[in-house]
Write a structure and sequence with these properties.
Largest sheet: 7 strands, mixed
Order of helices and strands: HHHEHEHEHEHEHEE
Strand order of the largest sheet: 3-2-1-4-5-7-6
Oligomer: single chain
Helix content: 25-40%
Number of strands: 7
Strand content: 15-25%
Structural class: alpha/beta
């Protein structure tokens, strides 16, 4: 997922906002205790999510895919005073790390963590969202998007992560590579969808920003 040289990546990071200490600590603990730590949002993309959230100033945020809670904390930084972030993950085993760092970040009272299938949970949330971040099972991205779109206000923003899929979207497609095929169709579908306007940003592994019309 590294499309720039390490020198450029370091330069970009060093000339962007500093990573909050609590997120540095969360990164360290995730690498020590959790498999696939590369799934962490990371310093630079985390600051991008924080900045977007602060610009939007959302009252309600939906996150699909919590992992250890890094991106949730970043997104929560832009919430309005009485705002709420709903984050959903299927893995209950990570809850203790999530809650530990939600508390340390000071956003625990603003974050509602749900355990289960997002497609079952989202329809039960009696909330209209201003900002959505999709970062879970890639094969379900089209279904996640439809579920989120039904709950997002006009003018709201839906972010989709990992849409460049380590560059596989521009490589010859293997007939056995179902995930890449789904992401290729997903990316084209967002561009052609008259319900949203979309721009794909080459941030980390690809971040699509879709504005609901």
């Amino acid at each position: 997922m590294h499309f720039l040289s390490s020198l450029l990546e370091n330069y970009i990071t060093n000339n962007s906002e500093n990573e909050p200490t609590v997120l540095t600590e969360l990164t360290r603990e995730t690498h020590l205790k959790v498999i696939q730590p590369r799934m962490l949002t990371g310093h630079f993309q985390g600051r991008v999510l924080s900045m977007l959230s602060k610009i939007i100033s959302p009252e309600n945020i939906l996150e699909i895919g919590t992992y250890t809670g890094y991106s949730a904390i970043c997104l929560a930084e832009g919430l309005r005073k009485n705002g709420k972030l709903h984050t959903i993950d299927v893995n209950e085993e990570l809850s203790h790390i999530q809650q530990k760092y939600f508390e340390k970040s000071g956003f625990a009272d603003k974050i509602d963590a749900h355990i289960g299938d997002a497609l079952d949970i989202i329809p039960t949330l009696e909330v209209t969202f201003d900002l959505v971040f999709i970062d879970a099972e890639k094969k379900s991205y089209p279904k996640y998007f439809e579920a989120a779109l039904a709950k997002t206000r006009p003018g709201g923003i839906i972010l989709s992560d990992n849409v460049l899929w380590s560059g596989k979207v521009v490589e010859p497609l293997s007939p056995k590579d179902v995930t890449t095929k789904i992401l290729l169709d997903y990316n084209k579908g967002l561009k052609d969808d008259p319900r949203v306007e979309t721009v794909l940003l080459p941030i980390r592994d690809g971040l699509t920003l879709s504005r609901v019309l």
